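Retro notes, item 3 of 5
We never archived the inputs for the pyridoxal-5'-phosphate complex last cycle. Fixing that now. Sequence and ligand:
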Amino acid sequence: MDYISTRGSAPTLDFRAATLAGLASDGGLYVPAAWPRLGTDDIRALAGLDYVETAVRIMAPFVAGVLSEDELRALCRAAYGRFSHDAVTPLVQLDHRHWLLELFHGPTLAFKDVALQLLGQLFETFLAGGDRDITIVGATSGDTGSAAIEAVAGREHIRIFMLHPEGRVSDVQRRQMTTVLAPNVHNIAIDGSFDDAQAMVKRLFGDEEARNRVTLSAVNSINWARLMAQIVYYFYAGVRLGAPDREIAFSVPTGNFGDVFAGYVAAQMGLPVAKLVVATNVNDILHRALTRGDYSAGHVTPTATPSMDIQVSSNFERLLFDLSGRDGGAIRRMMAEFDASRAMSIPEDMLAGARRLFSSARIDGDEMALALRWAQERGGQLIDPHSAVGLAAARALEIDADVPVVTLATAHPAKFPDAVERASGVRPPLPARLGNLFDREERYEKLPGDYDAVKAYILAEAARG
Ligand SMILES: *Cc1c(COP(=O)(O)O)cnc(C)c1O
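Structure as it came back at the time:
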């Protein structure tokens, strides 16, 4: 499979190079040159397969030419062997038509593990035996940091530096990062805000001296391999609810548009998807874009669903690329307009294409809490606030009564105990496998909110090998 950029002028790469590159050199995002199709018999044949075999069938066309099926299977076994549930992403029934797809059984209790555990395996495989080391540098306000650290801890040819704002992440979130004591993991607590930390990371990536000394790689970059891993669970859930002979709707709590874009790819590959619901909180740029064509960045309002508190959704560019008829020049012009003015309007013909598959809903804090309580009282499930945003949108969806509606449950409730307790009156306990988190040794470096100090620390530690 070849990979091309959404902005049309970066070199075409194979899967290995696209995975290692992250962002394309023209500022665009890599996408496969064509969507592979599964016939109805191929989809029917997935019915009895376990998660790893499903993953191999779905991902094989995307890695063709770089990894054999056996190599891919070995990587999937290693990645998904670390999940605490044998089904990896089990389906749970809430009522006669609503289902939860639990994506939080990985090591850090958020759905990002599904993609990042595989990405860690891919990085190590692609760097093995070479003389190239990569240095991952990121800033986190919580979830991404721990998932990325768990994915690369102890791996050869990779080191990771993760900046977090000191005192501004929860104790659970900090300890999930700082108790990983592998020598290639470096946690840095910055005296400053998340935005300060993020700005330092951006500056480092543009710093020629730093770039000459280490091969920098971004963990929050929009890596195709992350999306690819997420296509699998749409098929895994879909065949269990009757695909290819029955249509399924999915509701997806959305931030960067990565997870829901994977659902779009599943539909392009042949999964009968009746609707994809883009569920946002009050930071609703995607809802405005899909309903009114108004894609304009505002200010972020902090909510009980921090992983969805975004200004812009980087992966939306991948959808726009398809909606434009894969016209890289058109996307380059649209994104240049957006970069200049922080706003663009999406042409009506492109919107009409999107609305055939997507719908959207904006869910405020009260609606979120109501859905959380409904799941608890009527469905017997304590869910996290992000999943509750998805469920609220799913329940508002107007669709044929015989279409099952699957809400993606993106985090374990114990990751957000305060918000869950506020809405439900119940404080979710940490799962047993994390039970001793508060007894483990922590290791991290405290640094002032000063770019030169942070850069000097990273370059010195990187040079120590
Ligand atoms: C990252 C995240 C999301 C948003 O996913 P996107 O792929 O960015 O749309 C939703 N819920 C949780 C818990 C997350 O960590």
